[in-house]
Amino acid sequence: MSDLVRGTAAEMADALAAGEVTSVSLTQAHLDRIAAVDGDVHAFLHVDTEGALETAAAVDADRAAGVSLPKLAGVPIGIKDVLVTKGLPTTAGSRILEGWIPPYDATVTRKVREARMPILGKTNMDEFAMGSSTEHSAYGATHNPWDLDRIPGGSGGGSAAALAAFEAPLTIGSDTGGSIRQPASVTGTVGVKPTYGGVSRYGAIALASSLDQLGPCGRTVLDTALLHEVMGGHDPHDATSLREPVPGAVAAALEGASGDLSGVTLGVIKELGGEGYQDGVKQRFEEALDAARGAGATVVEVECPSFVYALAAYYLILPAEASSNLAKFDGVRFGLRVERETVERTMAATRAQGFGDEVKRRIILGTYALSAGYYDAYYGSAQKVRTLIQRDFTAAFEKADVLVSPTVPSTPFKLGERIDDPLAMYLNDVATIPANLAGIPGMSIPAGLAPEDNLPVGFQLLAPAHQDARLYRVGGAIEALLNAAWGGPLSALAPALGGAK
Ligand code: GLN
């Protein structure tokens, strides 16, 4: 491996296993890359140089001693700051958790440690995962490595930007309404939202518990598959955790790499396209469909009429659940505490100072939607819409194996452009939200650059619940077809960033 930070995670794992590289040198190369570019990108909130190198050295020693190691042992990773990490600061992008050091690991953190992956640090995010641009982070925005004046998506902009800037080969995200897939789309990377319950949420700071799902982020479909298998599986600590084996993601991704799609029917969701979608986004999406047809896929159109209500239902359900989940940040138990003469005033002052505007906006919305007399009209109606959306999906999956759409209606917008316009910001999620409302798995893969601005476009794939492997199979095939047309992975084309060429 000539360039230690540019390879895929799969290549890094192979080079480590073959003794061509040590985990210490691989990890150090990523730490050096972070030191060189993160001043511009700001993908990380906290970098754990010492801890990462310590894990790397222990892996190298075990490998030298002939100990059998997990596949990704020694491959470094970044973790979204929404996951608690024992001994490492965890803020969820909020001032209210500034300085808090968790006393325990999230289940997924524990699994990453058991996989012997050096943890480079914690990635930046919109405060409590509310947002589509990472501008709502209390610690400053992350910048898109394709164009530093543009958003890297959100809420997991840090995890996506770290990949696109070659600061980490793998990262972890959380997706409540698109926070893995939308950042993947706008940074030219791959992001997967597993079936609800497929990955434990224990130790993930909750936004909306019925929608939240953790998932893998990488530069290739195979890399996300490798990480999915590390993260997934039943966990007795999470009551919604599925009692079923981890999906065979890696085998499916490898099968897909042949690029063969014969026998596969793709359903284009009529409501997620057309008006409001940027021309270049539609063009690249259509070209990806053409490539799929050329590889034997059948492409049909499906209708999901209830999707027009998805955004509205989501912005009732999410604030309602968030207002309850965030009640625990009161200055008594965690992080910031603004002392006042009474307990009530201490709580009020702590929350007034500790939460940002978007968080306050959603808490107010959610509290209102849940208040006596309004509950049925708002939360109740939104739950009914959720059922209708699930029915739309069920009907659509009778006609197609995988449903597809552009992941996001546009390429990344400019930092600052929508920060004062919450509705415009929310509209970026129209295509990703339905999957969360229905609990089904989704993936975003790069579909090239829009011709009008040379910025990344994402191609979204959705599968029925529990069929995550299907995403890796079909996503892997479309990726292989597009890479063949481009002469290599899109991420390798990421533009200059202090020597990223
Ligand atoms: N952008 C969406 C929101 O603001 C999605 C958030 C998420 O998936 N965490 O709610």
Structure description:
There is one protein chain. The chain is an alpha/beta fold. It has one domain (3-307, 386-499): Amidase signature (AS) enzymes (Alpha-Beta Complex), CATH 3.90.1300.10. Helix content is 39%, strand content 11%. The protein contains 16 helices and eleven strands. The structure holds glutamine. Glutamine (GLN) binds at residues 129-132, 154-155, 174-179, 207, 318, 429.
List keywords for this structure.
11 strands; Amidase signature (AS) enzymes; eleven-stranded mixed β-sheet; binds glutamine
C-alpha end-to-end distance: 16 Å
Record field, number of beta strands: 11
Approximate helicity band: 25-40%
Radius of gyration: 21 Å
Could you tell me the CATH topology label. Amidase signature (AS) enzymes
* Order of SSEs: HHEHEHEHEHEEHHEHEHHHHEHHEEH
What is the CATH architecture assignment?
Alpha-Beta Complex
Largest sheet: 11 strands, mixed
CATH class: Alpha Beta
Average pLDDT: 95
Tally the helices: what do you get?
Answer: 16
Shape: globular
Count of discrete structural domains: 1
User: How are the strands of the biggest sheet laid out side by side?
Assistant: 1-3-2-4-6-5-10-11-9-7-8
* CATH homology superfamily name: Amidase signature (AS) domain
Enumerate the distinct ligands. glutamine
Strand content: 5-15%
Low-pLDDT runs of 5+ residues are none
